[in-house]
Write a structure and sequence with these properties.
The structure holds 2 protein chains of 2 kinds. Chain A is mostly beta strands. Chain A has no helices and 11 strands. Chain B is built from no helices and 10 strands. The chains are: A mainly beta, B mainly beta.
Amino acid sequence: KNEVEQSPQNLTAQEGEFITINCSYSVGISALHWLQQHPGGGIVSLFMLSSGKKKHGRLIATINIQEKHSSLHITASHPRDSAVYICAGLGNTGNQFYFGTGTSLTVIP
Amino acid sequence: GAGVSQSPSNKVTEKGKDVELRCDPISGHTALYWYRQSLGQGLEFLIYFQGNSAPDKSGLPSDRFSAERTGGSVSTLTIQRTQQEDSAVYLCASSLVVTVNTEAFFGQGTRLTVV
């Protein structure tokens, strides 16, 4: 069983829809990253959070440490949001990130 | 540039040859991580360096893999006697001293193809 689980694995949405991607983890972490990976491209860090909520443009990330759960929300989705979104927990000892398997998002015009 | 730099960006090698992948972290970042992503697979942790401490090698898939970090900066990942299953994108990331507010930055990766 993966230490970090994401859902859904695949998501197709119409342009403009509100999107939620979920991440649950079973290991102790000190912080959680949300990453974005475009086809053929590198990885971009969207958020790093250890509590509460962060917002950047149309993206919102929340984390509940007690429930070991985080969500990434995209408001007013756009085709350029199409990518793989990965959550990664930074272990308490700081020596590695535990990666989720990713959520492949396709936003249709 | 100010980001994490990896070289080469692409490498095609024959089975059995040795390859060396390089990662230049962001200046001042003491933590450096190597990962790989095989085709259609998730990210797999390989090795972690923190400052001058002995690296955490727990994720290396076999003894054909080794890594070093000279002077606490540039890191090289070496794969000896490459096999076809080593084909993957090898990613490097770096971050400041690990704290709760650590942000990690990833390089563009080296795409390794073993033929």
